[in-house]
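for the recovery benchmark. tokens below, seq after
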């Protein structure tokens, strides 16, 4: 038999594990509709001779009487004919019943004897003591306990008696219902987007956190973004150490707005320290960068009307002696270049295109050919792919935002003539997107007669010759050892070349804007060796859509790295400190280490990125051969490669693959991976743009004669 009577030590240890499971204790149970629901322990029976315990829980929401529910839960197979008669009162399980549980389990050929049975609104657990003491078995065999009512809505999750998924979710929900959108988890602030204006960011709130005093300072105040900012500021001042605040989360969770309020706090909160209520020029410029980058780097998506489609790191430099802001520097990365030429249904291109079309005055419209038939966003391919109604955003006035963007560009040091160059470049991109092609595989492609007008306008605005642009949109040059051969391209290839020009020019424009901004934020008179900084990292969050491509892959990879940082600080470092302090009443909290998933993506020489780069270098490489290589490397070697367990081949696709991320399993469509990874612009097009008669476009291209590889999502830093 598999079962043997327990010794006294086993009994004592098992009863110790069960000591909090007393009558009246509440526990959490998974529910399809509500995720987690509460149930109360109504009956517990221990048979120390057999080494078996029975626990009966009844849902708090149950409508039947407790007696009826418990009577229903006793498995009839354990009682013979007597068990088939309805019992109207609560009673404990008898020793004979528990013996039958053990006997039935002992006949199993494998697995645990312990079991759980659910009948309507009640749950019965029959637990063998010896199995309960197996490593990690308590979490598998017993339901997670609820925290005492006194801890409901705790301001810091680390103060909860029981810290597990349902406890965390319940606590956050209770606080959210009370309009407390911020909660601490140790050194981390959890923010829940209220999706409505809240009066939490005024001058009085700033002053309250800026003047926090006593042990702990701002850490002892109510959870708030300003408390995190103040702690970073005090850490820089008191410990003379640079600080960084990382703002991350799911797409649409409010990261951009949070980063904006943190920057405002640093710019405004401590003026009274110097008896100065007026912001300096640098502080105004730091705040002015927000509307600039929101216009050029944010877009409406299915999750968020103002979603950041790039990452940004701002380090705010403080003079060490007086702790006043004296400068700053911004770095950007992961700009989603593909959005310039393609938007999914209901989504928009970058805000700046719609602002220009709505806010340009009559003279500017005439100059840029944005009047007449080209006066609205519906007239352009690059701003209308989201479908009818997609261009409108509730509560947003694009014309007013255009004025704000123009004023902000002026504040950060971009002159009126430079702003005119920016508007012209944007208009050139819009008209280029309206160029279409006709032709066949045998004859090659040519500019469609109906798009001759936008073609001529685009060429003029970008400052390139009609003939040369027409040639290199519809032909490509093949270089051999002894000759240069012109080859026709088909219609699809011509569209790819057209879009590559638009993406490249826009990304170079986005990068260029950083130059004047950083020159203004960090005057040459500032001695960086005499400064400290607080950095603010704002990166777009984990994404999981119906269709996921290379962009989502890169975004989610970055978020895996951030999650690893979160695990390190919230779980590892916190619990290392508990161990050093030798806390007696503390139990180690396990957490999922996502290093295998990171290894799957970035491992060398056989990670996904390494295999993608390898396939991109092959002349005959394709999306299909890339995904087939992934299948062979990971799906067929689950046992020999540890990280391969995080990879799966979908049942009904030969071009997609699934990765088990920390937040969710995401299936990526392999189509387009190689093109977006390479994302190159033909050399002939680069030469044409470099020689542009429009000096601004020529300078954009010449500043990067070789286009950066990392454009549609791969990491890129720009100084």
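predicted aa per position
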């Amino acid at each position: 038999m598999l079962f043997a009577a327990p010794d006294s030590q086993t009994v004592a240890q098992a009863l110790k594990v069960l000591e909090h499971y007393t009558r009246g204790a509440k526990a959490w149970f998974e529910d399809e509709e509500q995720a987690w629901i509460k149930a109360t322990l109504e009956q517990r029976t221990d048979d120390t001779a057999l080494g078996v315990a029975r626990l009966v829980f009844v849902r708090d929401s149950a409508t039947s009487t407790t007696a009826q529910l418990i009577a229903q839960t006793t498995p009839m197979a354990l009682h013979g004919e007597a068990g088939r008669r309805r019992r109207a009162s609560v009673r404990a399980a008898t020793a004979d019943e528990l013996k039958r549980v053990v006997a039935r389990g002992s006949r199993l050929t494998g697995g645990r004897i312990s079991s759980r049975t659910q009948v309507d609104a009640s749950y019965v657990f029959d637990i063998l003591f010896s199995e309960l003491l197996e490593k990690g078995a308590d979490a598998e065999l017993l339901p997670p306990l609820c925290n005492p009512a006194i801890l409901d809505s705790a301001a810091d999750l680390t103060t909860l008696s029981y810290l597990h998924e349902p406890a965390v979710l319940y606590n956050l929900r209770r606080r959210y219902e009370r309009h407390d959108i911020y909660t601490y988890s140790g050194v981390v602030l959890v923010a829940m987007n209220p999706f409505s204006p809240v009066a939490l960011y005024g001058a009085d709130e700033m002053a309250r956190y800026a003047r926090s005093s006593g042990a702990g300072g701002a850490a002892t105040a109510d959870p708030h973004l300003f408390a995190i900012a103040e702690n970073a500021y005090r850490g820089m001042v008191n410990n003379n150490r640079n600080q960084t605040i990382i703002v991350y989360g799911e797409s649409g969770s409010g990261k951009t707005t949070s980063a904006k309020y943190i920057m405002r706090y640093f710019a405004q909160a401590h003026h009274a320290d110097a008896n100065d209520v007026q912001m300096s020029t640098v502080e105004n410029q730091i705040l002015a960068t927000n509307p600039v980058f929101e216009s050029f780097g944010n877009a409406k998506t299915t999750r968020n009307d103002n979603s950041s489609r790039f990452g940004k790191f701002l380090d705010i430099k403080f003079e060490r002696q007086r702790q006043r802001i004296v400068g700053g520097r911004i770095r950007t990365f992961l700009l989603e270049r593909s959005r310039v030429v393609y938007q999914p249904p209901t989504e928009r291109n970058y805000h700046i295109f719609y602002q220009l079309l709505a806010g340009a005055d009559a003279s500017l419209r005439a100059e840029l050919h944005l009047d007449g038939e080209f006066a609205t966003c519906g007239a352009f391919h690059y701003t209308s792919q989201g479908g009818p109604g997609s261009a409108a955003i509730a509560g947003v006035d694009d014309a007013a935002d255009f004025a704000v963007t123009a004023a902000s560009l002026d504040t950060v040091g971009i002159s009126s003539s430079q702003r005119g160059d920016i508007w012209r470049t944007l208009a050139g991109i819009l008209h280029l997107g309206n160029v279409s092609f006709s032709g066949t595989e045998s004859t090659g492609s040519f500019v469609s007669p109906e798009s001759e007008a936008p073609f001529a306008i685009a060429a003029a605005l970008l400052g390139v010759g009609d003939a040369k642009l027409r040639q290199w949109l519809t032909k490509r040059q093949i270089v051999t050892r002894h000759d240069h051969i012109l080859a026709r391209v088909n219609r699809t290839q011509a569209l790819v070349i057209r879009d590559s020009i638009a993406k490249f020019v826009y990304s170079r424009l986005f990068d260029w804007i950083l130059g004047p901004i950083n020159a203004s934020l960090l005057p040459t008179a500032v001695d960086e060796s005499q400064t400290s900084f607080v950095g603010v990292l704002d990166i777009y969050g984990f994404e999981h859509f119906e269709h996921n491509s290379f962009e989502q892959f890169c975004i989610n990879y970055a978020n895996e790295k951030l999650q690893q940082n979160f695990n390190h600080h919230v779980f590892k470092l916190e619990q290392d400190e508990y161990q050093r302090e030798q806390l007696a009443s503390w139990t180690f909290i396990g957490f999922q280490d996502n290093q295998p998933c990171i290894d799957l993506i970035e491992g060398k020489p056989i990670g996904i990125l390494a295999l993608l780069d390898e396939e991109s270098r092959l002349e005959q490489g394709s999306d299909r051969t890339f995904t087939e290589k992934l299948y062979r490397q990971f799906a067929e070697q689950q046992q020999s490669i540890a990280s391969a367990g995080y990879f799966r081949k979908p049942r009904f696709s030969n071009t997609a693959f699934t990765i088990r991320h920390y937040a969710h399993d995401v299936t990526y469509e392999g189509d387009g991976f190689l093109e977006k990874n390479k994302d190159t612009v033909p050399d002939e097009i680069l030469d044409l743009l470099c020689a542009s008669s429009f000096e601004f476009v020529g300078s954009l291209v010449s500043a990067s004669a070789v286009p950066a590889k990392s454009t549609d999502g791969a990491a890129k830093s720009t100084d």
